[in-house]
Amino acid sequence: MSRAPELVDSLFLGKRKPSEIYGRVFVVSAFGGITNMLLEHKKTGSPGIYARFSSDDSGAGWQDALQDTAARMCALHHDILEHGADRDRADAFVRDRIEGARACLMDLQRLGSYGHFRISQQMMTVRELLSGLGEAHSAFVTTLLLQRHKVNARFVDLSGWRDSANPKLADRLEQAMADIDLKSELPIVTGYAQCEEGLMKEYDRGYSEVVFAHLAARTGAREAIIHKEFHLSSADPKIVGVDATVKIGRTSYDVADQLSNLGMEAIHPNAARVLRRADVPLRVKHAFEPQDPGTLIGPEGGEAGRIEMVTGLDVHAFELHEPDMVGVKGYDACALEALARHKLWIVSKQSNANTITHYLDGSLKAIRRAEAEILDRFPNATVSSKPLSLVSVIGSDIGDMDVLIRGLQALSEAGISVEAAQQGLRRVEVQFVVPRDALAKSIETLHACFVTPAAPKVKAAA
To answer: Among 221, 244, 264, where does a domain finish?
Structure first.
């Protein structure tokens, strides 16, 4: 969204006739980096306004962060909007939202100074309030930009700003779209929706795709399209090289789920479920290559016997070992409860008679807390964690490709030691656990083995 002026020529208008501009609905996310400033940095955990407010007693930290975020919002829309009047309107919009948020947070702090009130009970509401600021700003600025290009764009704010009602998501969407004429108006809709269900609580930052999916389902869209800055391709071009990557083109919801599990969301699993049930096709397209059909995600999936993506991420191998585990219930449940309580994402899992290993995505601090909790319950157990990387080879139907054997051979020939490997019965993914410093090399090796056309094929063992 930070490249909105470029999107006018490629996505919003392009070479379309005036009549072809309408009949579409755009659900927009926040401008790049703004949600990190409002909440916390998604990758590094660096605190934003929300994180500072939740831990800062003095109040200076979060107020400074709020001011910095307002300044960044204004700088962004000053780069996007060329007309002075549009910039003034956007400045006023940011000022109103930021000062409103400041007043709410100060009132909460004041209440918290009394022993009868617990701010902790309102923190999810605070998170919802702050997250909605980014999407509202992006949608408002995009609307101004399009109106300046003589498009009858309409700002549709689902964030519930100054709205005393707390409707269900379905009602919020129904009310917002009720009087819009899609034949002559182009709705620019906030990716965040304030509703009774509380989207942040259930989906955290995946809420924009969930709103997008529900809106597509409710309007009976011919097709739901996610626009990204890149094609959904066979690997990260920064690792394997742009020339080596291949656009996926067609894949299954199964593959989309595997990608989501590895932090490479083509679409949030819950959003995909909504679209599947509504029978709305999903397409992922390159926002700056509008003529390219992109990748279609559907129940029919991609070709059998074709690797669609090789990807991976850094994990911690969280191992619970207890010789007395055999035949005794409770160890697995205890581990799962502790990991869930400390918000650790389980990427994969292996177990045998006396050992359960979870491959986790999360902070080391949270892992240590989960470890202490499990040891408190099972003092005779041994719990350890080890930094590793997990590389996944994914396809809609790879059952007859000997991926496990060929992958092990390729990694061995590349001098990469494999700590663990596994393949499920569903045959959509094979996982290889490798040393932490071998992630990029492993992805490059497996991609060359299974995807790059010029790569020599590694023969399976007889």
So the answer is: 221
